[in-house]
Structure formats: C-alpha cells, structure tokens
From TrEMBL, chains A, B:
Protein topology in the membrane: Multi-pass membrane protein
Listed transmembrane segments: 7-28, 34-55, 67-84, 96-119, 131-152, 164-184, 205-226, 246-267, 288-306, 318-346, 358-379, 385-408
Domain Sodium/hydrogen exchanger regulatory region: 527-584
Similarity-based family: Belongs to the monovalent cation:proton antiporter 1 (CPA1) transporter (TC 2.A.36) family.
Subcellular location: Basolateral cell membrane
InterPro entries: Cation/H_exchanger_CPA1, Cation/H_exchanger_TM, NaH_exchanger, NHE-1-like, NHE_CaM-bd
GO molecular function: potassium:proton antiporter activity; sodium:proton antiporter activity
Pfam families listed in its UniProt record: Na_H_Exchanger (PF00999), NEXCaM_BD (PF16644)
GO cellular component: basolateral plasma membrane
A GO biological process held by the record: regulation of intracellular pH
Stretches assigned to the Cation/H+ exchanger transmembrane domain: 16-408
Listed name of the protein: Sodium/hydrogen exchanger
Keywords carried by this UniProt record: Antiport, Cell membrane, Glycoprotein, Ion transport, Membrane, Phosphoprotein, Sodium, Sodium transport, Transmembrane, Transmembrane helix, Transport
C-alpha cells in the first residue's frame, strides 16, 4: 500500500539522502577543505538527476518554487537572523543598506540594459527579447543569494565586518528583488506603462521593506510576550520560537511584503527576550534544531538545484549566456567600487581594496534566482532565461565558490579572530559605548551611539517589564555572559571528571574582597552607574570574589619570563590552603 | 495572496492554538489538578467546533484519518517507546502480551456478540445490523488507546508496574486491533466466508506483530550504525533518530504491519546505542523535541476530537449507544479478572485486586477508535457507529478520566516512588541480576534472567562493536549513570553560582584510596568480575576516590541522633584542610 504513505515517505527519504550525503562528505576529511560542500551537493544532485533522466527518459522533476519559498527557505533565513551578530550588523547598517538597495538597483539596470544592447546585435538572433524582458531577467539574476553566500563564507572565516557586509547585503536585497521582479513582471503584462506606475514602484520599496520589518517585530514581540507564561510547561517553549517566526514569514508573504526581512526582524527582535525567558535546555534545543533544520534545508536546496539542472527545459544560446555571466561579474565589480568610494569618504574605518575585491567576488547566485526564473510567466524565451540562470548559478557556485578560499589566502585578507572576546574586553567595549553616547549627547550629535543608548533606555524602562518574566531580574549582559561561561566550564569539568566536591566559601571571600575594595573605590560617572546598577555591581563583585583564585592563577601566564610549569598547581594549592586557614 | 500560503499558515495556526491552549490551562494552577488536560482540550475543541458550526451552518471538518495516522500518532508513539522504562516492560512482558492479545480478542468478541444480542430485540429497531458489522464495531471499540491512557496516567503517578501494564497493553494491542479490524472489514465485503480465511486471519496476528518488531529493529540498528559516523557533523545527529523511526513506522504501514509496534521496537532498539554515540547536546535536543512534538500532537488530537464531535454525522439510538458503553465496561472488567487470575497463579509478585480495578477502569478509548470508525466503508448504519464511538470516547475520557484520580486516592493504590534509585541500589539490582542469571544457568532453568544475560553477552560481544564508535569505550551502565549525575550536579552548581575553582586532587586521593582498598579486597565471583571488567572497575574506583569527601559528608545524615546542622560544612572544610595538608 505504497500510495497511502507516499508523500511522507518520499519527503523522509529525500531528507535522509541529504543527511547521508552530508555524512559521506565529512568522512573524507580532505574533500571539504578543498571543495565547498555546496559544490559537492550540486554534484550529487547532478548525478541523481542524470540517473532519473536515464531511467525514465524524461526530465526529472524540477524544484517546486512553492516548496522552496514556503518550506526550504524560511529555516535558513531564521537561522541566519537568529545567529546574526547584531553589533557588527547594526554598526555597518548604512553600508549594508547602500549595497543592498542602490547596489542591487545598479546591477539590475546595468545587466538589463547591457543585455538589451547585446540583443540588438543581429548576428546573435536575439532581437525578439524586449527591453522589459531583459530588465526582468536582470532583476532576478542580480540578487546575491544568502544561502549560497552563507554556505561558502561559513567555511572561509573572513573577518567579521567583511562577512556581515556580504551576508547582510544578500539578506536585505530580498526586498529590492521582490519589488523589481514583481514590477517588471506586471509591466510585461501591461499594454502601456504610465509614469504613475513607475513612481508607485519606487514607493513600494519602502512599503515592502519597512512593512516586513514591522510584521517581523510584531511577531517577535508577541513571541517574547508568550514565553513569559511558559514557566509550568517548559517543553513547548522551543515551539513558539519556530511558530512565531514562521508565521511572520507567511504573513509577510501573504501581503506581498518581504518575508526574508520579516523573519530576520522577528528573530533579532525576539532573541534577547526569549533567551532570558526560556530554560537552558529549551534554549539548547532551539539553537540545535535551528542549525539542524537550516543545514538540512541547505543540503536539500543544493541537491535539488543539481537535479533540476538536468533535463530538456534549456534553450542554448552562446552569446546571451556568456554575456550574462560577464555582465554579472562586471556590473557587480563596478557597483562595489563606486559605492565603496562613497562609503569610505564618510567612514574612518574604511573598506580596503582587498575587502572590496572579496565583496565583489563573493556575490554568489543561488536557489532564489532559480526559483524566480521558474516562476516567470510562460513566454517563448523562458527556456533561454532558465539556461542562462543555471549557468550563472553553476559558474558562481563552482568557479567563484571554489577559488574564493585560495584567493582569501593569497590576498591575506584579515581573518576572523579565533577566540571569543574576554570578559575584560567586553567590559571595556561597554564602557566605551557609554562614553561615546555621553560625548554624542553633550555635543548634540545624534549619532549611532546616541540612538543605541536611547533604545537601551526604552528597552530597560518599558519593553523588559512587559516581555520578561517578573521574577527574573533583568540581568546585565556581562553577568549573563559570565553565567554562560561558568555553566560551560562546569560541564567541561564534569565531562573531564574533575569536579571537586569541596565546598566553596563565597561569603568569607566576599567580605574580604569588599573590605579591600572599599579602599580603592573609584568614582564612576553617572552614565556608567546607571548601566551598572547596584544589583549588577553586586553580581559582578560576587563573581570576582568567587574567582579571585582563578584570576591569580592565570596571572603568571602573562609573565614573559616564567613558563606555566608543573609546580604551579601545587603552589596554587598551597596559597589556597594558607588563605583558608586564615579564614577559618 | 492568502491561497499561496494557506496550507502552512493554517497548520501553523492550529499548532499555535494548541500550544496557547496548553499555556492557558497551566496559568490556572488549580484546574489541571482536578480535570485532566485531555478533558479540557476536548472541551476547547467542542467550543471551537460549535463556533465553526454556528458561523458556517454546516458540519466542521472532521479529523482526517490519514493526518491522524501519518502525522499525529507517530510522534506520540515514538516518545512513548523511547522513554519506555525497559526493565519493568520486559519483566512484565508476558502479562502485557496476555492482556493485549487475549484480552483484546476477548473484548472484541464479547462486545460484538452481546451487541448482536441487543440488535435482536425488536423494540430497539436494530435488526438490520448484522453480526459481522457488530464484530467490526467491536474490533474498533475494544482497543484501549495509548494516547488517552498516557494523558491520564501521566498525571496520577500510580506505581510503575501498574502503569506499564495498562500502557504496554494499550501499545501492543495495536497489532491485534489492526488484524481484527481489517479481517472483519474484508469479511464484510466478501460474499461468503471460508474457514481458510479465518485461519489465515489467525496466522496474520503473528505476521503483523512480529513483522512490525522486525521492521522496527532493522531500522533501529541502521540508525545506531549511522550515528557511528556523525562525529564531524554533530548538528544533524538528532535528525537520524526521528527519520529512522518515522521510516520504520511508514514502512510497516506500507506492508500492512503494525506501525505502532515497529516504531516502539525501533525506538527501544536504537536508544542505547544512539545515546552512547551522539553528543550530550544532541541528546538533549532529541529528548526535548520528542517531548515537544508528542505533547503538541497529543493536544491537537484531543482538540480535533472535540471539533469532530460537533456536526450532523451522528445517528442517535439510545439502546445501542447505552449498551455499547455498558458492554465496554463489563467485558473489560471480566477480561481483566479472568486473565489476572491466570497470571497470578504463575507469579510470586501478584497483581492485587486494587490494581486489577485500576487496570479495568483505566481502559480509556481515544482517537484511534475515532479514526478507525471514520475509515469504515460507507453503509447505512455508519452514522450510528460514529455516534456510539464518540459517546464511548467521551464517556471514558470524561467520566473515567476525571474520577480515576480520586479513586486512586480513595483506594490508596501504591504510588510511584518519587526519588530515582540511588547508585547503591542500582549496584545491588545489578548484582542480583547476575546472581539470578547464574542460579538459572546452574539449575538449567531458561528463565528471564538467563535470556537477559545471554542477550547482554551477545550485545557486548557483537552488537556494540558494530554499532558503537570505536574510540568510545563501551562503558558500564553504572559509570554512565554516574557521569550523568555528575554532569547534572555540575550544571546545578553552576546555576546556583557555587562552582568552586579550587583544584581537586583526584590522583592523590586515589592512591590513598587504593591503598586502603587493597586491605579489604573481597573476592568477586567470576560472573560479577565478567560484568565489571577491569576498565569498569577502574572507573568506579576513580569515581569513589573523587567523591570520598562527599560520601563522608552525607554520612552523618544517616545517624539517628545528629541533625544536619550548620556547623557541619565548617567541620567538613577543616577535615579537608587537614587531609590536604598531609598530602602536601
């Protein structure tokens, strides 16, 4: 009785295939370090497509655009939004928006017009492709794909700013792509185009983008509010994170807003509150499942891309396809150069020419283009567009994706720092933020720090009271960080089997610490005091008190002349003994 | 553009409704302690059904049997199988099988024949319901529902044996129900019934049941084998647990075997190996997600049950419906009494009459009956059967479900022990197991312990080598348990902020321990030594060495004359100081 179980059975088998393919690649350690996983997966897809084609003698099923947009894309974008490093994202917001909006428009019109130019050459036999169709094609081929970018950039570990620039652009250009694609598509079906329609199109940018943000934030806040009440029923907490973000995506899509922007706004908006509300295990589950889901979606997308490539729905035209690839490269490079020129004039921390090259080179195309080209209304050159899109995707994923890592090595592009920032660094960064906010406030300059400070004030004054549980003290981020580290350390200790059951004497140590501390109390300016309220300060003192030994112990390692020898732990133990003796 | 997103949007909204309903109930603490959640959920469903009925003026959609069997039931059964306490389950296997197979057949024929008797009374106007139809109805109404049983028994905390008897029966009777239901259904459509068909039906029991076990174990072993290779790609580990168990269910259903039995066999088979292979976080995710999924499915099923009750697909016939309820109660009670009489003759640990009453009273019917009655082929009395099934379900869930807790209190049925067994108890249980296996071996009695021992031997000799990672030492269950406790303790310490950073001296203590230990070494018999191989012994010694303080500290609490006073930690600290001083 196969028909009865067909749908879930086949879905499960596809997911299984994807997971097994992933395991297979990782068994050979050398392969993933040379070839990006996305290339391997497309390759698997090509083989599978070939097998299906060979067996059935007809084209294998192409990826359904509905399945892609409704089921495969949301998990990846949710994962991207939830784990987005918010600090670099907001710091480079202006640059990212410039690339995403102006850059994408530049690419669309650049590629569209120059392909129209190519179509005028009689020898190529392409005179029947109109300007509007070329622009429509430009609008779908110009968009950098977040899935492809993430798949490649996660493996090459460039510095955080570069990563966020390329990745942020690929996410936010969704709003622009959606508007331009729908605009040109409706223009194609209209008999005449009025100038009113063009202006309406420009207005739509803001509606689609800001509408997406609004929908996302609404659902994000509702999610945070809901998790206030899950104290007695921890087990369904992770569900709300997924349900609300998926609803935000679907709602945005329903009103023709940008679903990608909505889900990112939702994830970034709720993250902070949800994490404070839900239990540690729920949080692990949320993180793990998000990663798992996005990883499977990702794998399925690339396999389907490969499968869909095989078949008879391509019309081959050398000049059009070659020029598409060339124009995609040229216009992106030009766009990045021109835009970066303007960006660098207004920033102290400029984008180097190496970074510019990687930004231009990292403009990978992926499954979004592919789904959009299949969604095109039927017209006689659709198969040509499909062929050109497939070639561009394969070219960017294979050629650019495989060469970008050697290029990054060759150019010695600044890499991501391996270690997480220390607590000391975090405190200093935070202190500087408050200082800069104060300076901006005094000088009357409404800059980034000023707004951040105002937002933080609004957050702690109103939002936290509504969205967080009452009995949960709103903790400082540093205290939270410390608790996280502490927890991690405890688990490590337990796993290594070194958990000592000796009682700690925080109270004794604390009084000792407080005495010595009062002598050298420093005057903390109003702003910092505001941020580090008494509760937080007490927390920090407790933490320091508890870890006084640890700080001392790590001390000697900084000394240039002593090596961390084996005698150290014994000395350290002696020190503790003496201290304890005194306290007893 | 609502149509585009309709399907996922509505699914998400239903799940959201279910989750919010759950939160709502838990906000009022008193409600869940009086009324079981299942009743409340059916009530919510009834209200929703009423609203839909009132607004549209037509019957609300009934629960689709396909959706129920393909998507809602598997998560619940998987959860049940994965968290099944395997020791009591296997210890009471014989009794459970007797209840599930003989008991269900008894109920089916009892209810079927006595309802046929009622149909012969002319005053009731039911002469057109044939014996076969009555038996078919009996086969679907006799099955105790695992979802309903779980929902009620999880809240009343009866002792483990009673729980596993009722719950195990409700799970394993699926095979019998499937066979009888399909048998009678095909008989209804046949012109004449040959005696060959009846014998084929009896043979089918074994095929359906054992086939399910076989399919489940095959997928379970494959799952365990697959997780051997996920070292580099931890993030998709949880996926395999879900994928393989779902595949086992679908495959079993495809071949008309018992899907429930298959998924339980798969879950119980893979659990041990998967848990050893996957990382701790993956394991948390698996557990959490299973619980979450089953909880949501559960909620949806009860809400749908309520919604489906409202409508116009009922035919009301007082005598038939009332007698159905009465016969369901009587035949179950009789069946339990008779079967328990035989069971008690062969067991030392008998089932008390109180327990018998709860077993009979706990035979709740639920969504499986409901789905089966809708799957019936159309005939003129189908609506009567639907009405009778609905009434039986509502009666058992509401009346029996709500009164079972007071009855358990009133009868003073033995409750579940609250605390987990201590490590000492575990060691003793294990020791006794080996002892009994040895006794059975010597006396030539092939009892339960003998087979368990043989299975354990086969497991450690062959299965573990194939299914577990090579670098993972196959650890003793006691060592694993200890590590689990240690980890839990560490997390608790970290969360309470009491993690001491003082170094522990396991090596020093260990040598000390080993010296003192060698004096009183006891002779361990061959069997025990086999089980506690050198690695395990060393592990246990290490553990004891590390926790020597702790054992000492907890010592005084056992003394009848001293209270665990506040002075104790100081004394304890002094003791440690002295010991440490010596060792330095």
């Amino acid at each position: 009785d196969y028909q009865h179980v067909q749908v879930p059975f086949e879905i499960t088998l596809w997911i299984m295939l994807a997971s097994l393919a992933k395991i297979g690649f990782h068994l050979y350690n050398k392969l993933p370090s040379v070839v990006p996983e996305s290339c391997l997966l497309i390759f698997v897809g090509l083989i599978m497509g070939g097998i299906i084609y060979g067996l059935n003698d007809k084209s294998p099923p192409v990826m359904d655009s509905d399945i892609f947009f409704l089921y495969l894309l949301p998990p990846i974008v949710l994962d991207a939004g939830y784990f987005m490093p918010s600090r670099p994202f907001f710091e480079n917001m202006g640059t990212i928006l410039l690339y995403a909006v102006v850059g994408t428009i530049w690419n669309v019109f650049g590629i569209g017009f120059s392909l129209y130019g190519i179509c005028q050459v009689k020898a190529f036999r392409l005179q029947d492709v109109s300007l509007l169709h070329n622009l429509l094609f430009g609008s779908l081929i110009a968009a950098v794909d977040p899935v492809a970018v993430l798949a490649v950039f996660e493996e090459i570990h460039v510095n955080e700013k570069l990563h966020i620039l390329v990745f942020g652009e690929s996410l936010l250009n969704d709003a622009v792509t959606v508007v331009l694609y729908k605009l040109f598509r409706s223009f194609c079906e209209m008999p005449t185009i009025k100038s009113v329609d063009v202006f309406a199109g420009v207005g739509k940018f803001f509606v689609v983008g800001l509408g997406g943000v609004l929908v996302g934030l609404t659902f994000g806040m509702t999610a945070a509010f809901t998790t206030r009440f899950t104290k007695d029923i921890r087990v369904i907490e992770p569900l709300f994170v997924f349900l609300y973000s998926y609803l935000s995506y679907l709602t945005a899509e329903m009103f023709h807003l940008s679903g990608i922007v909505a889900i990112i706004a939702c994830a970034m908006g709720m993250k902070r509150y949800v994490e404070a509300n839900i239990s540690l295990k729920s949080h692990t589950t949320v993180k793990y499942f998000m990663k798992m889901w996005s990883s499977v979606s990702d794998t399925l997308i690339f396999i389907f891309l490969g499968v869909s490539t095989i078949g008879e729905n391509h019309e081959w035209n050398w000049p059009y396809i070659c020029f598409t690839v060339i124009f995609c490269l040229i216009w992106r490079a030009l766009g990045v150069l021109v835009l970066t020129f303007f960006v660098n004039r207004f920033h102290v921390n400029t984008i180097t020419s190496k970074d510019q090259f990687i930004i231009a080179y990292g403009g990978l195309r992926g499954a979004i283009c592919f789904s959009l080209v299949f969604l095109l209304p039927d017209f006689h050159r659709k198969k040509l567009f499909i062929a050109a899109t497939t070639v561009v995707i394969l070219f960017t994923v294979f050629v650019q994706g495989m060469t970008i890592r050697p290029l990054v090595d060759l150019l010695a592009v600044k890499r991501k720092r391996e270690s997480a920032p220390t607590v000391g660094e975090q405190i200093h960064i935070r202190f500087l933020d408050h200082l800069l906010a104060g300076i901006e406030d005094i000088s009357g300059h409404w800059g980034q720090y000023y707004w951040k400070d105002k937002l933080e004030y609004f957050n702690s004054k109103y939002l936290q009271k509504i969205l967080l549980r009452e009995y949960d003290q709103p903790k400082s981020s540093i205290v939270l960080l410390y608790e996280k580290l502490e927890r991690k350390h405890a688990i490590e200790l337990a796993e290594a089997g070194q958990l000592g059951h000796a009682p700690s004497h925080p109270s004794l140590l604390r009084s000792h610490f407080l005495c010595s501390n009062s002598d050298r109390t420093v005057k903390i300016d109003k702003k910092l005091e505001d941020a580090l309220n008494p509760d937080v300060l007490e927390n920090i003192q407790e933490i320091l008190a508890r870890n006084l030994y640890r700080i001392r112990r790590t001390g000697p390692a900084y000394n240039r002349h002593t090596l961390p020898g084996e005698s150290e732990p014994v000395e350290h133990a002696k020190e503790i003994l003496i201290l304890r003796h005194k306290s007893l």
